[in-house]
Every structure is written in C-alpha cells, then in structure tokens.
Structure to design on (729 residues):
C-alpha cells in the first residue's frame, strides 16, 4: 500500500489554514435551535489553540500525559482535544451523561489520567475532584506567552476511546494522531469534503464518528457547526440554521426522522444539506430507502470501528443512480478506503475469496496500536473486527457486505444465521413492526434458536402480533423454516439498551430476562396449549402423523404427504403438559364460493391431502379434519351402494361427525348448519358412505369465543379457529 502522511504536524496545519484563510469560519458554537452563537475563524482558532496549549503546559501536562475530558458537545471540546494532540498530550473522553461514577473512576484509572477537564459542579466525588480542572476556564485564558513545544509529527498517541465491546468492562482503544489523521484524510477524499463545506455535529464528540469527521473537516479547511446535542424534533431546523452541507448519522436518527416530515417541510427551502453519511451501527435498508424517498437527501453507508479510527469502507459517491440503488438495496458497505487493507478471513486466519463469509480483518495506518491492558485484537498483523462479512467483485473492484457481529451471529445446529438478514425479512413480512432485533436463545437441541424482540407501531398490537405469528408459521418463501424466529416478545423502544449513539446492545438485550412466546402458540388452555404445526417441530409432527392415520384408518396417508399437509395448510395441534399431542385440526383458507365447494371432490378441496391449494389470503376457512386421541374407530358394515342419496340425511342423525359439528359450543346458540351434501366426493370413505358434508359455523366477527377447558379436545380445537383468524392477512 502506497502511503504518505497527509500532514506532518497538526499545529502547522492549523497555522497554515490561519495564514491562507484567516477569516474563513472554522468552528460555530450553536444553541439547541441551531442558531449560531459564536463563530471562530481559522485565525482565531490558531490563537485559541495556542492559549490552551500554554494553559496545559502551566498545569504541568507533558507529552504522553493523559487528559480526561468530560464535557458536552461544544467548540471547547474540539479546542481542548486539538490543543492536546498538537503538543503530544493524550485525551481520554468520558461519557458525562451515561457513565456512572464507578465507570468514570475505572476509565480514569485505566488510562492513568493526570487531569480531568469537566463542567463546574460535575464530578464532586473525592477520587475525581482532585484531578478536575474546569473547562469553563478555556474562555477566560490570556494570550499565550513564550514558545510552546508543539509536536513536529503525528506518530504519537493522541486518544484513548472506550468501547463497550463484549466484555464486562469497556476496553480502551489506543489511537495515534496518525491513525486519526489517516482515516480523516480518507474520509475527506471519499466524502468529497471541500473548504466550502460545513459539517454539522450530531453525535457525541466522545464518539469516534464525530471525532474523525471533525478532523476530516479541519483537514479540508471546512467549517464545523456544533449544536449541544442531537434532537429528533429539531434535526431539520438545526441543519437549516447552521447552513450545514453534510452530516453523519447513525441508523436511529434516520429512523427518527421518518416521522418528522412536517418539520422537514418547514425548513426545506433553507436547507443546504446535500449528503449524509450513515453507519456506526447496522443499517436498516428499508429505513434508508424511505428516508431518501421522503427527504431527497442521499445517504451513503460507511463501515468501520473505533479501533480503526472510524471508516475502512464506504459506498462511493460517484456511482450512477442504478448502481447506487442496488448498493442500498443489498446493504453494501462499499469499497475499502485508500489507507485500509481489508480482507475476509476464516477462524484459522486464512484469507478467503469472493462471496465467502468470514471475519472482516483490517490492516493499515488507520488501525490502533492496541487496547489498554493488551486485550488480544490482532492476527498476522490484521485487526480482527469481530464482524462477519464477505465481498463481491463489481466492475473489477471489491465491494464489501456486512452480515453481523460474530458474537451476535446465531449458531443453530452448526449453521450460522445472520440476525440482520432475519430482521430485514421480518420488516418485509410485517408493516406493523417499528423496530426489531433478532437474538439467539438457548435451545437443548440446536444449541441456539432464533428469537425476535419487537417494538410495534402503536395501533392494534395484539392483532399485529397474531398476524405476524400466522405469517411466520405459514409457507411463504420469504423466510426459510430454519431461520424463522421460533419465539417473539414485545418491548417498548424506551427500554432497549443502547449506547450513547443509539446503537442497541444485543448482548445486554439477551441478558434482560425477556419473556418470549412461541410463534406457533395460538392459545394456552388449562389442560392443553394449542400450536400451529410446522414441519420443523419433529416430535409433534411424528405424533400428529400417527394420530391422523389412527383416526382416518383405513384411509391413511404416507409421511411425505402429511409433511406437505402441515407445510402447506393450517394444522393446529393440542398438546398437553406432558408434551403429548391430544388432537389435531387441519384447515385451508380459500376464496372459493359455497356453490363451488359444494361441487368439488375431497381430493380437489384437499389437493390430494397435501393442502397445497391453501390460499393464505383466502377469506373463507374450510375444516378438512379434526382428530382426537379418544376417538374409537368403528367399521361401517354396509355398502355404499345400499344407501340411496335420499336416505343419507336420515343417516346423518346417527353420524358422529355431523352430530359433533351440529352441537352448539363456545357459548353460541347453535353449532354448524348443513349447507349441502356432496355425493361421491370421497368414495373410499365407507364410514361416510362416500359423501362429504359442507357445514357452516356461525360467523364470529371479533374472534372472541368461550373455550371451556373441561370440554373435549375436539370441541376446543373447533373453537380455536376464530382465535387464529381474528385478523385479515
């Protein structure tokens, strides 16, 4: 890799900007509305850097010392950081809002901070107070006197950033100024940042995203607007008031703004925002597409981590519209940046080829020195990202794709399942999902099973949940049986465990003791639970198959047909507390009229017992079979030919199936009513004289029925139907 340092000295770069563009704006301090309260030119920037540098020297800070920073987003944050880095002092930013006192103490001890710059009134604990200097003093500093010993190069360590990672304690990534500058220079070129641009800070400055994007803007001689914090309701106003031409966001912000169209329209005419970078957390394809359709501002995805000083790949801005759209739809994370060498490796460290899944590994001047405490992070000179991905060759170049964290990938029976891929499919299946996070839960057979944690849109949650469960237990072609979530639970968005940038921490989500329910569960009675049967439920499949053939003897079907029966149709099983299948109900949905159904054979209505004619959007429900384990088959002694058609209705008075359905149940005044008899519908069924009956139950509009747990399993199964179909697919 050809590499030349973008700059030799941070102070000399700032001094050069001050000489060449003295009155150009460098930093803009803004209020919550985005209004500019203070404008710092490049000439003033140089003077302020010098004043702060002299102050730091007076406080005893020397090259290699660590300065803790616990201050809000502000011009002062950047001034303190850049001054420290320019003189070789290392900064260790803290999360002043989220960190507990214990976490602050841990980070300060681990980084061996000599001083802590904090707001007045913050951190009054004795252990911290003795380190503290007030950041408000920055605005009162006198002119620098004497010569400051600025660093002549950028190879020294500059920053310790704490990452949540997968350990119980945060890890401190040690980044040199060269790491930061090299990455910032790559972003400057990738995102085409020029001196006329203005960057609006949305994310915390103690986060690598804002840190490096601000440095990219400084390298370009652009200006940086700094509101106090991101605001969902003020995002567009801040963008308009600051005059920002670009910004960087996380997926949470894109999602937030989908509900802020009115706010956008108020400031649309004043906006200069023409591009937005999105990343730092898994990107939701549908949200990105909706954002761009709604607001007309392109989002460009980038990938990287704190340990790589931010971006290592990015979707090129110069792509034609068709190619760019494909990149968005496939959730591509782009090409490697100019200072990043990116490979995909297996668990033995071997470099993999095109379209092979493996761990994303990175090498180059952007990669950190290591972690404080020497946590293992490298293999054969490559930083191991802990992320799973692959690449494809497009127009002769590698384009990379992110599949998920290796720690988050679900390993089900030895097969890797990407949570992100499943989440994307779930959003496509259900429009009622607001947000969804897929995690693995312990399973005796597979090791891990797939589970979904869902935030629903506010209207009709129970109906939406029932519909999703129905779709997930139906053959759709949209998601394989193997990756289909077996469990779901509902959570309020406010209760999701997140990082300061809004990224949901799945490791914490898994430890929240959430109460999951099986997607196959339709109703839990006193003595039995009623489940939608799917082919992957092997124990229940075996029992239901045996029960079906027991009840329908001598009209048995083979195992392959019954598998299709359960896969294509709607089969509900009643399972007792000992996990024994006590009964089964088979149905299909259809849009055929009563008249049409009255004229077709059993083979036609059941597609030869495969139920492949089931229409999941059908408005009518046809019950094909009800079986229970207390059924006692009795052979019919007569011959079909000996019973005339006009005598069949008289026979019905003694027919057990007719009597069962005719009987009132569930609190209704009557049971099913006979619509028609279908002669020669199933000649091989001697017990039914070759006839089928078409009977119609009372219509249940609200899905509410009285299921008596003391009634027979067959009766309870008959009443399960409205519980399952109290919604319209």
């Amino acid at each position: 890799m050809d590499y030349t340092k973008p700059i030799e000295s941070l102070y000399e770069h700032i001094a050069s900007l001050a000489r060449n563009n003295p009155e150009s704006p460098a930093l803009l301090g803004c209020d919550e509305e985005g209004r500019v309260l203070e404008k710092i030119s490049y000439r003033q920037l140089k003077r302020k850097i010098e004043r702060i540098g002299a102050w730091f020297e007076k406080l005893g800070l020397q090259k290699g010392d660590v300065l803790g920073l616990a201050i809000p987003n502000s011009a002062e944050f950047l001034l303190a950081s850049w001054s420290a880095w320019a003189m070789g002092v290392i900064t260790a930013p803290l999360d002043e809002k989220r960190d507990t006192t214990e976490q602050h103490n841990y980070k300060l001890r681990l980084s061996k901070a000599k001083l802590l710059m904090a707001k007045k009134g913050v951190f009054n604990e004795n252990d911290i107070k003795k380190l503290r200097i007030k950041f408000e003093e920055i605005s009162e500093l006198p002119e620098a006197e004497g010569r400051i010993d600025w660093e002549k190069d950028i190879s020294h360590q500059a920053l310790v950033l704490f990452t949540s990672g997968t350990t119980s304690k945060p890890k401190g990534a040690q980044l040199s100024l060269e790491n930061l500058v090299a990455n910032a220079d790559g972003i400057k070129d990738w995102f085409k940042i020029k001196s006329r641009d203005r960057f609006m800070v949305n994310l915390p400055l103690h986060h690598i995203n804002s840190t490096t994007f601000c440095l990219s803007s400084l390298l370009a001689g652009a200006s940086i607007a700094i509101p106090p914090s991101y605001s969902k309701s003020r995002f567009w106003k801040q963008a308009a008031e600051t005059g920002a031409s670009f910004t960087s966001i996380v997926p949470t912000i894109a999602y937030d703004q989908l509900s802020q169209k009115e706010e956008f329209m108020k400031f649309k005419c004043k906006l200069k925002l023409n591009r937005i970078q999105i990343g730092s957390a898994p990107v939701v394809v549908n949200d990105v597409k909706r954002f761009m359709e709604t607001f007309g501002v392109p989002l460009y995805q980038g990938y990287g981590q704190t340990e790589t000083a931010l971006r290592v790949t990015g979707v090129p801005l110069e792509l034609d519209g068709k190619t760019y759209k494909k990149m968005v739809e496939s959730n591509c994370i782009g090409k490697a940046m100019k200072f990043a060498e990116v490979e995909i490796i297996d668990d033995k460290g071997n470099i993999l080829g095109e379209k092979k899944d493996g761990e994303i590994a990175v090498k180059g001047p952007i990669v950190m020195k290591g972690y404080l405490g020497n946590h293992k992070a490298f293999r054969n000179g490559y930083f191991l990202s802990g992320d799973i991905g692959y690449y494809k060759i497009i127009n002769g170049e590698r384009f990379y794709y992110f599949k998920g964290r290796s720690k988050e990938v679900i390993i089900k029976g030895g097969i890797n399942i990407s949570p992100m891929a499943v989440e994307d499919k779930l959003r496509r299946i259900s429009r009622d999902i607001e947000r969804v996070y897929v995690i693995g839960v312990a399973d005796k057979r597979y090791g891990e099973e797939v589970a979904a944690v869902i935030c629903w849109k506010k209207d009709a949650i129970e109906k939406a949940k029932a519909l999703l469960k129905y779709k997930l237990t139906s053959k759709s072609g949209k998601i394989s049986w193997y990756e289909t979530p077996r469990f779901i639970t509902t959570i309020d968005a406010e209760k999701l465990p997140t990082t300061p940038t809004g990224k949901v921490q799945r490791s914490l989500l898994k430890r929240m003791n959430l109460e999951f329910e099986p997607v196959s569960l339709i109703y839990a009675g006193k003595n039995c639970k009623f489940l939608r049967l799917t082919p992957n439920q092997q124990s229940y499949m075996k029992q239901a198959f045996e029960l079906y053939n027991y009840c329908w003897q001598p009209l048995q079907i083979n195992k392959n047909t019954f598998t299709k029966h359960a896969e294509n149709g709607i089969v509900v099983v009643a399972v007792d507390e000992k996990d024994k299948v006590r009964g089964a109900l088979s149905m299909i949905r259809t849009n055929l009229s009563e008249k049409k159904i009255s004229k077709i054979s059993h083979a036609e209505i059941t597609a030869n017992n495969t139920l492949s004619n089931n229409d999941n959007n059908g408005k009518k429900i046809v019950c094909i079979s009800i079986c229970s384990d207390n059924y006692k088959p009795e052979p019919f002694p007569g011959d079909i030919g000996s019973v005339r058609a006009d005598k069949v209705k008289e026979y019905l008075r003694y027919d057990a199936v007719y009597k069962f359905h005719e009987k009132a149940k569930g609190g209704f005044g009557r049971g099913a009513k006979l619509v028609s008899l279908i002669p020669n519908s199933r000649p091989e069924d001697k017990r039914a004289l070759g006839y089928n009956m078409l009977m119609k139950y009372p219509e249940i509009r609200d899905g509410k029925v009285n299921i008596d747990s003391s009634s027979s399993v067959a009766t309870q199964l008959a009443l399960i139907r409205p519980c399952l179909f109290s919604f319209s697919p």
Summary: The two ends are 55 Å apart (CA to CA).
